[in-house]
């Protein structure tokens, strides 16, 4: 008889970001939804650690991920009308640290 010892370190981390080429108006609406529904959008406000680059795409990615993590990565919490996608590569940069579950 052969026994195999398997150690599970944990599930791979995931983040929710804006899809490349997503419609700008759709991203703006989705940012407003995420921030209004409890996402921590302080870091994407002027002076915040994630304000720059000051682009809709970048701000949407942070807001989407904050909402996704707040919802504990629940199914459907990274959709935003089809303008978001789940990634396995951490999107943090510089002092801007994206939340992770």
UniProtKB/TrEMBL annotation:
InterPro entries: X8, X8_dom_prot. It comes from the Eukaryota. The keyword Nucleotide-binding does not apply. Residues 14-98 form the X8 domain. It is a lipid-anchor; GPI-anchor. Keywords: Cell membrane, Disulfide bond, Glycoprotein, GPI-anchor, Lipoprotein, Membrane, Signal, Transmembrane, Transmembrane helix. Pfam families: X8. It is found in: Cell membrane. The keyword Glycoprotein applies. One of its GO terms (cellular component) is plasma membrane. This is PLASMODESMATA CALLOSE-BINDING PROTEIN 3-like. It comes from Cicer arietinum. The gene is LOC101513947.
């Amino acid at each position: 008889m052969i026994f195999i010892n398997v150690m599970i370190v944990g599930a791979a981390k995931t983040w929710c970001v804006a899809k490349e080429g997503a419609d700008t108006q759709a991203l703006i609406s989705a940012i407003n939804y995420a921030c209004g529904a409890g996402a921590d959008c302080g870091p994407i406000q002027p002076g915040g650690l994630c304000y720059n680059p000051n682009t809709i795409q970048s701000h949407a990615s942070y807001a989407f991920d904050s909402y996704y993590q707040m919802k504990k990565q629940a199914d459907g919490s990274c959709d935003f009308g089809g303008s978001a996608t789940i990634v396995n590569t951490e999107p943090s940069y510089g002092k801007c640290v994206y939340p992770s579950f």
